[in-house]
Every structure is written in C-alpha cells, then in structure tokens.
Amino acid sequence: MSETNQSIGAALRDARIAKGYTLDDLQQATKIQKRYLIAIEDEQFSDLPGDFYVRAFIKQYADTVGLDGQALLDQYNDQLPSTKTQEYVDRVNDDNPSRRSAQHTENERMSNLRRRVPIVIGVLVVIVVLVGIWLASTNRAQQQHSSQVETSSVSVSGSSESTSSKAVSSSSKASSKSADKVAFSQVSTTGTDTTFTMKNAPAKKTLTLSSDQSAWSSVNVNGTSVWQGTLQSGSQHKVALASDATSVTINMGNAPATTVTVNGHKLPAAKASSSATTTESSSTDGTTDTASASSSSTINQVQNITIQFK
C-alpha cells in the first residue's frame, strides 16, 4: 500500500477517535460490520465484499465521523478500487441494513394500508346505502303529507270561502260601527262661546280649517296658541294635534264661512242661543210702551268653539 492509502485509513481512524466513537459505536451508527470497519482503517480493502463496497463504506464512514465523504473519495480517488458506475454506490446504500430496515417499515405500512382499503370501501358503501334508504323514506313521507294537505284543502275550500265572506262582512260592519262611535255633542253655548265634546276621539288627531270666504282664525291647544292666520276663499289649513291634547279652541272671525273637521269628521254648526228683544218708546202722555219681540235664533259672525276630547 502507498503512503496515500495509509493516510485515508489513518484519517478516518483519527476522526473516529476525535468523535469519541469506538468501533462498536460506529458499527451501530452505520450498520457496517465491525470487521469491515477495521479493514477500512487498516486499508485492507480486499477484505470488503467487493470493490464497489469500498467507496460506499468509506463515504458512509467519513460522513458519520464528521468528514466530507465525497471530498475524501475525490482526494484518494487514484488509490481506491474503481467502480463501474454511480449505480454501485446506490446499490450499496440500498443494501445497507438501516436502509433495508426503513424500506421494510415502509413496505409494512403500505401493506397495512392496502389491507384496510377494502374495509374502508365497505364502510363507505354501507353509509351510502343507509343515506339512500333515509332519503327515500323521507321523500315518501313528504309525498304522503302533501297528498293529505291537498285533500284537506279541497274538502274545506267551500267552507273557507263561506267563512271568509262572513268574516269580510263582519269586519265591514265592525268598521262601520267603529266609525259611527266618533261623534260630536254640543254641551253648552254662552254668547259667542260654544263647547262640544268629541266622543271616542283617536289618539292621533288632525284639525282642518277650511273657508269659502276670507276668514281669520286662531287655534289654541290645551290653552296654548299653536296657529293663527287668515284663510282665503277656497283654502284650508291643517293642525296636527299632540296625542296628549285634551281640548282645542278655535276662534273664528267669520264663523258661517268656516268649516271645522277633526280626522275628517265635520263639526256641526253651533246652535245659537235664544234671546228676547225688548223695545221701549215714550208716548206724548208720558207713559212708556214696551214691546217684546219673539225669540229668534241667529248665527254669530264671531264664534269661539272649544272641542273637548273624550
């Protein structure tokens, strides 16, 4: 052996010792038999199984002890047995016990997976069948229910129409009665002041003033003035009343020409108070003649109308 070949064995041995590995440790780490490791350190390459194992074992040895295996092979390339192709190195790796163990584990895992595939497929088939049965049963129940509903609808259609007609008629009558409940009643009249009550007044109320002649008016709600102005002929003015309004007073300068409505309900004309007219005259003989005119009803031009909401 040349000095160069001696150096590769010594370099590997020195690296192993520097790592603190024994030959037994190295055998455990690389799965290379101890006798082959000794042959590599003694550079007895002929003791290895074949020429292609020399490079593979040296590279694996060098990588395990912290050296660059490929660089070491390149450095001592001329002193090492030649190999035909890189295929030999790959073959050595495949024949390595650790690689074989890993491959065995992988093969075992794939075998277990293949054994489980039929079981998984069988479970999936059972699930699909059960789902199909459930869907068919649900669809059948829905069809039966739909058929029953249609039959019931046909049998009661005449009754429903009659009932609906009666309900509409009753509703119309109830609405009519409800509308009739809203009514004005004149409570008192003193001079130009007249008081009405509005029974069953709704919470939301709108007062509307309209006139067919020029007429001045003012509106007071609960004693507070909310509007005043002059209505022109053919015009109107609306005042929205608060829900808490208990009374509204309308002062009208031209009452005969002014119309008052609350939510579309027209306020009736105030009935004027009866009054007696007395005429006194003096005769030539110093006596006084008194003539009484019969009572008459008149409509005052100026009126103050108060509506109390009940």
TrEMBL record:
Biased composition (Basic and acidic residues): 87-109
Region called Disordered, residue ranges: 83-109, 142-197, 269-297
Cytoskeleton protein RodZ-like C-terminal domain location: 209-272
Transmembrane domains' residue ranges: 117-136
Keywords associated with the record: DNA-binding, Membrane, Transmembrane, Transmembrane helix
Keyword Transport found: no
Any GO MF annotation of the entry: DNA binding
Record flagged with keyword DNA-binding: yes
Top-rank lineage group of the source organism: Bacteria
UniProt feature, compositional bias: Polar residues: 186-197
InterPro entries: Bact_Cytoskel_RodZ, Lambda_DNA-bd_dom_sf, RodZ-like_C
Protein name in UniProt: Xre-like DNA-binding protein
Comp. bias (Low complexity): 146-185
Originating species: Secundilactobacillus kimchicus JCM 15530
